[in-house]
Design brief:
- The protein is α/β, with parallel strands linked by helices.
- The chain has one domain: Rossmann fold, CATH 3.40.50.10320.
- It is built from eight helices and seven strands; from the N terminus they run βαβαβαβαββαααβα.
- It has a seven-stranded mixed beta sheet with strand order 3-2-1-4-5-7-6, sandwiched between helices.
- Helix 4 links the parallel strand 4 and strand 5.
- Helix 1 packs across helix 5 and helix 3 crosses helix 4.
- It is globular.
């Protein structure tokens, strides 16, 4: 099928985040590796984070722009759904379906369906529905032709079920740390008074580093990011996949 000239060039990964900063905090390492590999990546935020306990919509927008530049994204969009009230409406599902058809990604990256935050769980459900509907020509999707991505991958937020794979992000850990710091108002790094939230707590940076050091240790790396897919992954080269990494044996 010929691609409409109105459609942009396809991307490698289309990542969906409930709020600006979720993709960066949960999947920033992989996205930075994709940047180094010169792969095209787009992020779509469900909300603008307007209900955040800290900062203002204006500061959040500026922080999002800074993080977008660090990631080298092709584009960043917002569905403008209401923060804290994300629901799987027909309109929300069609908007995500249209985004998948417009950007035609190889991989769709979504929050994990198991999470404490209602917005995260809701968006995961929306993306799962849209991922399937994007392949059906007569399903509502902005009037765009159907597209079939190669995989739907979930990143972990508040909860961590058993992952399908872990990405070695050791090479970009320092850059990942700077990426997270773009959201200074949310992390409590802006010097402004405000409530002490989970991510603005004094020990958050230590806990975040420990989390990804743990997953890195599971694969013999300094830092790793866990992900999940709902299928068996093919291994083209078992010798390479099962190689010894440092002193760790998989």
């Amino acid at each position: 099928m010929a691609v409409s000239p109105a459609l942009p060039e396809p991307v490698a990964v289309l990542a969906f985040g409930p709020h600006p900063d979720d993709v960066e905090l949960c999947a920033g390492g992989w996205l930075l590796l994709l940047k180094r590999a010169r792969e095209r990546v787009v992020v779509v935020d469900a909300t603008r984070g307007e209900a955040a306990s800290r900062g203002t919509p204006a500061t959040r927008a500026a922080e999002t722009a800074a993080a977008t530049a660090v990631l080298g994204l092709v584009a960043r969009e917002s569905l403008d759904l209401p923060d804290t009230r994300v629901e799987a409406t027909a309109q929300a599902v069609e908007a995500v379906t249209a985004a998948i058809r417009r950007w035609r990604p190889r991989i769709v990256l979504s929050p994990c369906r198991e999470d404490r935050h209602p917005d995260h769980e809701a968006l995961a459900g929306i993306v799962r529905r849209a991922y399937y509907l994007a392949t059906i020509g007569k399903a509502a999707g902005g009037g765009l032709p159907p597209h079939r991505p190669e995989a739907l991958v979930e990143y972990f937020g508040h909860l961590e079920p058993a992952p399908s794979f872990v990405v070695d992000i050791s090479a970009v850990w320092e850059e990942r740390t700077r990426l997270a710091a773009c959201y200074a108002s949310q992390l409590g790094l802006d010097g402004q008074a405000g409530p002490v939230t989970n991510i603005a707590s004094p020990d958050f940076a230590r806990r975040l580093e420990a989390r990804y050091a743990y997953w890195g240790a599971r694969i013999g790396a300094a830092h790793g990011e866990p992900y999940r897919v709902d299928r068996v992954l093919a291994v083209d080269d078992p010798l390479a996949a099962l190689r010894k990494r440092g002193h760790a044996v998989l």
